[in-house]
Amino acid sequence: MEFVVATITLNSERARIADDLEQFRAETGCDRGSADRLGAGSDDAVATYEDEFDEGIADDLQVSLDEVDAALARIAVGTYGVCTDCGEGIPEKRLTALPASARCIECQRKQEQR
Ligand SMILES: [Zn+2]
Description:
By secondary structure, this protein is mainly α. Helices cover about 70% and strands about 0% of the residues.
């Protein structure tokens, strides 16, 4: 099976997330060191909280990026559309809605319950 549409979708998704991440890091100066610069003051707790919040967003973006990369890698080796847990085919509907899906609905549910 060919996954031309999925490849295009994933590539544009990848570019979008990478852009977001880059922009986000540029805006927040999130790549470490910001806490040091903001330190030495009574706003420490707030600064720390905001840093953690920002890092959470950056982490989420990074996770999405990794998922898209993994999906593209699966297309390259021909295992795309196959559940990474049980080896069953992932329904096309699910792949259309979530092209980066690594698991079938059942296994994803189990994973999220952990
Ligand atoms: Zn599965």
